[in-house]
Amino acid sequence: MTNLDATTMVLVLALGNLALCAVLTFYDHGPVRPPALAAWALSKQVQAGAWTLLALGGFGVVPEPLALPGGYALLFAGVAVEAGAAWETNGREGWRRPMLLAALLSILTFFVCYLIDEQGLRSVASSLLLGAFYLIGAIALASGWGKASLLQRFLALLTAVLALVVALRGLSVLVLPGGWRWLSSELLRQLSSAALYVLMLSNGFGMLLLGRERAGRELARLELVDPLTNVPNRRGFFNALAPWMALARRPGLPTALVVLDLDGFKRVNDSYGHPAGDAVLRNVVELCRRQLRDSDLVGRLVGVEFAILLPRTNLDEALLVAERIRAAIASTPVKSERALIAMTASFGVTILRPEDSTVTLFQRADDALQAAKGAGRNRVSQAVASPVEA
């Protein structure tokens, strides 16, 4: 009866993993999947094959000398890839080599124990190795704890607890072969099987929920960030500008705004193609960042028009910053596949005034920008000073 119960649990794990593989066929279906999700899907496929082979061996369909070592070899490989997918979730892309090496060592260790099979070494090895891999996955989910979501923290703690339950079965065979009081070997086996089942469910649906959570954060980020240059877009820049507009109504150090527009940018796209134009835009942002402080902010308003927020900066200092950026752009051609592309930019500079709205502020900065373009381009122009500024 005990053997039947164990085989039935293996069959349940096989069917559960096969069901998760079926779900993944329709989840986030497309030509490109996130690396973490792709690795996790592969781990589920390998584990489904492992549990299926073990179940077939338990029912006598496949000979045990083939099913048992083959099934556990696939299982160790699957949980190693699953642990790697957890690292991939946190942006650790170098997991493949160490985790695959760990899987190979685990398979070799299990084969040695399988051949010896002394005092349940086979059971000890499988429990300890599986528990270790799940614990590695828990550590991966817990890395960056301060920035992790509540869901990710819960999954890390749950996985760690269940991994210890799985490993406890192997430890008990080594330390307490006959069990301890009410904690019998049979109860530990049942607890270990239940922990593996819960791990399958929690890691399965947890990874899907984490994927949705991450996609939602990315969509929210793209509402405020320009995907090409990775700086705030118009909405993001205006959100960052709002508190400085409020501070401009109070006495204190002024805040400056610089707007810049690339001169003759259309010829770049027409002559060299849009990839070259994209490279020019990214290069402009990089040149701006090199001339700015950490507290300054550059954003892409629309097309080839950018804005730079300079907190606690007066007009003369802002003009110097704009001139440095102008000189950097003019003296740094962008290398494309076909040629070196020389670019210039025109600048309009102003400071925030107490009575300003975003409309009046940008209108004044844009007037200065148009004055720079009208004066021959590739120059910096300041806005007309108010009576107070004059």
Automatic annotation (TrEMBL):
<feature type="transmembrane region" description="Helical">
    <location>
        <begin position="194"/>
        <end position="211"/>
    </location>
</feature>
<feature type="transmembrane region" description="Helical">
    <location>
        <begin position="154"/>
        <end position="174"/>
    </location>
</feature>
<feature type="transmembrane region" description="Helical">
    <location>
        <begin position="99"/>
        <end position="117"/>
    </location>
</feature>
<dbReference type="InterPro" id="IPR043128">
    <property type="entry name" value="Rev_trsase/Diguanyl_cyclase"/>
</dbReference>
<dbReference type="GO" id="GO:0052621">
    <property type="term" value="F:diguanylate cyclase activity"/>
</dbReference>
<dbReference type="InterPro" id="IPR000160">
    <property type="entry name" value="GGDEF_dom"/>
</dbReference>
<dbReference type="InterPro" id="IPR029787">
    <property type="entry name" value="Nucleotide_cyclase"/>
</dbReference>
<keyword id="KW-1133">Transmembrane helix</keyword>
<dbReference type="GO" id="GO:1902201">
    <property type="term" value="P:negative regulation of bacterial-type flagellum-dependent cell motility"/>
</dbReference>
<feature type="transmembrane region" description="Helical">
    <location>
        <begin position="123"/>
        <end position="142"/>
    </location>
</feature>
<keyword id="KW-0812">Transmembrane</keyword>
<feature type="transmembrane region" description="Helical">
    <location>
        <begin position="66"/>
        <end position="87"/>
    </location>
</feature>
<dbReference type="GO" id="GO:0043709">
    <property type="term" value="P:cell adhesion involved in single-species biofilm formation"/>
</dbReference>
<dbReference type="Pfam" id="PF00990">
    <property type="entry name" value="GGDEF"/>
</dbReference>
<dbReference type="InterPro" id="IPR050469">
    <property type="entry name" value="Diguanylate_Cyclase"/>
</dbReference>
<protein>
    <recommendedName>
        <fullName>diguanylate cyclase</fullName>
        <ecNumber>2.7.7.65</ecNumber>
    </recommendedName>
</protein>
<dbReference type="GO" id="GO:0005886">
    <property type="term" value="C:plasma membrane"/>
</dbReference>
<keyword id="KW-0472">Membrane</keyword>
<feature type="domain" description="GGDEF">
    <location>
        <begin position="253"/>
        <end position="385"/>
    </location>
</feature>
